[in-house]
Design brief:
alpha+beta; seven-stranded mixed sheet; 9 strands; disordered N terminus; WH-like_DNA-bd_sf; nucleus; transcription
Length: 261
């Protein structure tokens, strides 16, 4: 069958399944860790990190008694944390991992056995908070450039066809153009890491925010904001802060430490 369908590409419908039953771990890691690993030279034989599994000898057969931590092998200078907690998901949709080469060859790399959420370890929360503040301050700096145009004769200042608010030169067609509402304008997504930094800065200002307020403050699409909020915050369904978001405890501590400083 392999000779008939070929083995070099997905265009002929062939998918390599030799590793389909291999167990793999799916892990969601902070942006700073992902960028560090992506920049790791492929020729470097040293491991990226080390996973430590702690077991309760009295309940060794109970999967919930296992605790996972990760120690990043090579950490650059600065406030980048070295130790992380791996929070395991015990209930998730069965998934498989696929890969595709530049030639279009598709292969199944394995099936997801464990899914983790990677967060800075307790003793590294303060360092991680400092790192987030540094990234926030950098993202708030806007680099503006001024360009001098010679002999332009006002060409670049003239309204072009399709511009909002353009009024016809004909006296018969002169009509007031309705102003475009802010909510009707398409918002452009920021870089995910940059938006996370801005969110931390906002929660330093006040602990609780409604989604509508955050949309106005960040000028980001509501759906995109919800994705970030689900990762960083908890939603208050009742109580005095009903209908607002607040930082998760592990992130709230870094903000409180910032205010204390």
């Amino acid at each position: 069958m392999e000779d008939e369908h070929g083995s070099n590409g997905s265009s002929n419908g062939h998918v390599e399944i030799g590793k389909a039953e291999r167990s793999v771990w799916l892990m969601k890691c902070p942006l700073v860790v992902a960028k560090s690993w992506q920049s790791h030279p492929p020729s470097d034989p040293h491991p990226l990190a080390k996973v430590i599994v702690s077991l309760d000898p009295l309940h060794a057969d109970d999967p919930s008694s296992r605790q996972f931590t990760m120690e990043v092998a090579a950490v650059e200078t600065g406030n980048k944390p070295k130790n992380y907690s791996l929070n395991m998901f015990h209930d998730f949709v069965p998934m498989s991992i696929f890969s595709e080469t530049n030639q279009g060859k598709v292969a199944v790399e394995g099936k997801v056995e464990h899914k983790f959420d990677m967060t800075p370890h307790r003793e590294n929360i303060e360092e991680y908070g400092k790192l987030c503040r540094e990234r926030t301050n950098k993202s708030m700096i806007k680099n503006r450039q001024i360009q001098v145009i010679d002999n332009d004769r006002g060409v670049h200042m003239r309204p072009m066809p399709g511009m909002v608010g353009l009024i016809s030169s004909s006296s018969k067609d002169k009509k007031k153009t309705a102003p475009v509402k802010q909510s009707d304008m398409k918002r452009t997504r920021r870089d995910r890491g940059e938006l996370e930094d801005i969110m931390f800065k906002l929660f330093e200002r006040q602990p609780n925010w409604a989604l509508k307020q955050l949309v106005q403050e960040t000028d980001q699409p509501a759906q995109f904001l919800k994705e970030i909020l689900n990762e960083l915050c908890v939603y208050n369904k009742r109580g005095t802060n009903q209908g607002t978001y607040e930082l998760k405890p592990e992130y709230k501590k870094s903000v409180e430490d910032t205010n204390a400083e």
